[in-house]
Amino acid sequence: MDINIGDLIVYKNNQLLAFNKPPELAIQQRKKDEKALENLAEIYLKSKVFIIHRLDQPASGIVLMAKNAKAQAALSQQFQDRTIEKTYLAVVKDPPPQEEGELVHYLSRNPKLNKSFAVEEKKPGAKKAVLHYRLLGKSDTYHLLLIKLITGRHHQIRAQLAAIGCPIKGDVKYGFKRKNKDRSIHLHALSLAFQHPVSHEKVLLSVPPPSGDPVWDAFKTVIEEVN
Prior knowledge:
Shape: globular
Distance between the termini: 29 Å
CATH topology: Pseudouridine synthase
Number of domains: 1
Structural class: alpha+beta
Oligomer: single chain
CATH architecture: 2-Layer Sandwich
Radius of gyration: 17 Å
CATH class: Alpha Beta
Number of strands: 11
């Protein structure tokens, strides 16, 4: 994967740095020679960065990092308090049961499979997961959903959409029939709204889905209207 990290930066100041992560780029390095957003950012800055939140490797979109531990702690607290507004786009084959609604499940994580399982009734060890969705548009083949994430659980959007019969395009782990050629999935972190840790002003960051992808491009006009 040929990446110019400078091209991915969408926001920066003394405390924070935000990227439009391409699909299949990991947040953290798992193998010695693997490129990951964290180590590419540190090479770019020539200093350490601090991870605030995660985004699944096959997904794309906004990722926020801190330049110091104090900023990291402040933003991590906002995530914990659920004051950060997180919006995603997901492309699915089949439409949801209703054009708009709230999904409430309980997620059980299986670390060995790196997968979460969604059920409707609480059981020991399962964590409550809540999201709102709205059908934004449809093409001849696919449907585009706008997702407002209320909780932030492991693989939450992927597991919850799969639980209602709407696995994300390319997401064979959660029931879609075929992989995308580049092993991506059509899940995109569209926007993030938070309070700046120093100025306390509200910051809204929004990034477009990967360009040149025919599926995302089919919904380009609809997505631009959201932004």
